[in-house]
Amino acid sequence: MAMQIGGDDGEDQVNSTINTTPLVDIMLVLLIIFIITSPVVLNLTKVTLPAEKNDPYNPDAKNVIITVNKDGDIYWQGYRTPIASDDELFEKMSKEAVKVPQPEVHIRGDQNARYESIGKTILTVQRSGIAKVGFVLEPPPKS
């Protein structure tokens, strides 16, 4: 009994495909080596990250509400007349900063307002000595 290898014509066919098995083996070995050695090489400092906190808005609290509209005008506690300058805002915030307990500042910024307007407001509030500055957001619609 004889065994026939190849086609009917008696010649062996050439295999033109690439054998990827050794490549996969090497890549898996490298991956395992990098996974094992990365904590040693990185030597990261252990820190405890703050947890997410979402406090509901309490309108009865004695907080300062600053509104920034899309034109960059700044309004104090919802009044209709805008604050004339950053110096005026700084004076008002300096008076609030010495109160005990210190009030929180909630900034209501229009979504079309320039970042520069809101950034200047935050900077002025922080310069006056206020510790807590936050943003008032509209909650997403319930589906």
From TrEMBL:
It comes from the Bacteria. It is a single-pass membrane protein; Single-pass type II membrane protein. Keywords: Cell membrane, Membrane, Protein transport, Transmembrane, Transmembrane helix, Transport. It is found in: Cell membrane. Its main location: membrane. The chain crosses the membrane at residues 26-44. It holds the Pfam family ExbD. PANTHER family: EXBD MEMBRANE COMPONENT OF PMF-DRIVEN MACROMOLECULE IMPORT SYSTEM (PTHR30558), TOL-PAL SYSTEM PROTEIN TOLR (PTHR30558:SF7). Belongs to the ExbD/TolR family. This is ExbD/TolR family protein.
